[in-house]
Amino acid sequence: MSDLKPANENPWYVLMTLYGEQKGEVDLELHKKNQAAWNAWAGQTLSDEEAKRFAESSNIVDGQLSSWAKRGSEIEKLYERVWKERNPDLAYPGMPSTDDPIDFYKFHFTNPVLFQRFIFPQPLWLNSVLFECSVSFFYSSWRVNFQASYATFMDNVNFSRVFCSKSFFLAGNFLQGANFNRSRFCYPADFRLSDFHGNVGFSVASFQRVARFKDVVFRKWADFRGARFEDQVDFGGSRFLDECDFRETRFDRHANFSLTFFESVADFGAARFSGICHFVEARFGSLQTLQRGGPVFTDCQFGKPTSFRNARFSNHTPNFEGAVLHDKTTFTAEDKDGDGPFWPVIRSGLPIEPRFWTPRSSQFPKDARDSYAVIRHAVAKQGLPEDEHFFYRREMFYAGRYGPWFTQALYRSFGLISAYGHSVERPLAALAALLAVFCYYFDGKLPDPCPSALGLSTANTLPFFGSSFLRTYYRDCGATLGDTGNLIIASGLQTALSFILLFFLGLGLRQRFRLR
Is the distance from CB of 499 to CB of 416 less than 8 angstroms? Predict the structure, then answer.
């Protein structure tokens, strides 16, 4: 920073503040005088068509752009006097040329800077500039490229305007709020490597050409509500460390969020993705933001293939309730029964989320169930049975976390005994336990016509074969058991339970060997 020069040593800054610099609170009357003088100088090289277009885009109504013929001599004399007053030790450089780029490279601004409704006939270069106070480009316009690469804005900055040329904010450093709400970028916009320390707004902004936000850091709230990206947009590698809002945002072409980190809530509610979309290896959530909520894709429309391959949902289930997913939407599931790094970890029968429920989020299990149902349907259309069943198991898990107690009990029993129809080992173990328990119960209680306790328990556990076995070799056993009271009831109960466990075993075998 030591090599930065004072703003008053820049010819264009002197011309911009011909009637005085802003001090403290903004003086709008002073600004109007400065604006009129600058626009009179800028309008010299504009054609009548350009002057009309810029006057409309910047809301200039008093003929400033065509006033140089009347005011030129007065402005030149005033400029020479002001320059010599501010820079008595520097040679007078003459009036800035309208043919040269407006260059502020490595200048230091200590007072508020208002570019509001300024017209720039040549490229505006703010590369490596330091603004200590607020900056406003509200309704300003320029013909050629705008560059603010490596610039540092220490106070709030307002860029709500129409960018009628390429705009470069490469590696910009915004230490306070940045306002780009309702801006219209008619040409490519480049924000790569920028760092937004305060809130940043792109609400209802329009990007008509390529927009690059690669490797950008958003440390506070990022607002893209209602924005429209008519061409490709790249957020790859960016970091949203606070909440980001993409509700009702339109992505007309390819949208890239690969390797993007969403530490807090990422709300894409009712967003529309008309082109291919990538969330490859994106990460949603962290241990520090467990209570804030997770990614929201409610009512989203994905018109073309979308990839969530290796995307990590660390502690919250993404909400896809009401979303329309493309048939070629890709998700990464786990190969084993259990939970891995890509989805919220489930321990001791409970996921991380319910430990942090609040009354407002009490319906979360139902939302999670509906979201996994949407994902499962999308995966099923691709013929991926293992992945489909992975999301089915999660759907069933959350279905058992709300509603009446008996409904929850049914779902939880289904998960405990068979891992929702995925396990072969659990039903087999349950059958073995059932056989042993009733064998112990029957031991010493059976009359002579009946087989041993082990034989009867086995016959009851395998009713398809056991009933034939009993009819053939122990015809009188049934009647004898009926005379002994509870033994016939126990045999019936064991047979009923065996049917259920054998059914779960069949589900597991069917899933294991992918039978349809």
Answer: no
pLDDT digits (tens, 9 = 90+) for 50-83: 888 888 777 787 788 888 889 999 999 999 999 9
Residue that the structure tokens 């440390």 belong to: 219
Please count the CA atoms within 13 angstroms of the CA of 7 that sit on its side-chain side: 21
d(CA 146, CA 135): 15
Q: Within 10 Å of residue 87's Cβ, how many Cβ atoms?
A: 17
Rounded CA-CA distance 451/469 in Å is 10
In this prediction the pTM is: 0.81
* Cβ 321 vs Cβ 370: under 8 Å: yes
DSSP per-residue codes, 403-446:
S-HHHHHHHHHHHHHHTTTT-SHHHHHHHHHHHHHHHHHHTTT-
Cα–Cα distance, 174 to 66 (Å, whole number): 36
DSSP letters for 292-326: T---B-TT-EE-S-EEETT-EE-SS--B-TT-B--
Phi-psi region of 94 (alpha: psi -120 to 50; beta: other; left: phi over 0): left
